[in-house]
Amino acid sequence: DVLDPERLIQCPLVKHHRIRARRFPYHLVKCKESNPEIAKTLATCPFNARHLVPHADLSDHIMKCNDKAFVEQDVVTWSCEPPQEQLNNGSPWQAPLCAEDWET
């Protein structure tokens, strides 16, 4: 189960490290600091910072990364034009009525 916070994940820096999913981001930060030479050999995926892959494999990983679909979906959503009626009428937002009279 991918969504289980208790599942164990193998560290990409030190293969014998197995970390619970909920602690994995914190472990990556500490493990990179403790192993700077290994960290230099790995590249971070632009779609998910938890994905560390060898520099030579980054382009292949980017093509196959499952998290790319989420980013592409967001790009498509943001690039869609608003309905024509909304463009003609301007913003549909209206200020709420106020019962206060500042003049009195």
Automatic annotation (TrEMBL):
GO molecular function: zinc ion binding
Membrane in keyword set: no
Pfam families, sorted: zf-U11-48K
Keyword vocabulary terms for this entry: Metal-binding, Zinc, Zinc-finger
Keyword GTP-binding appears in the UniProt entry: no
Domain (CHHC U11-48K-type): residue spans on this chain: 8-35, 42-69
Protein name: GTSF1 factor
Gene designation: Gtsf1
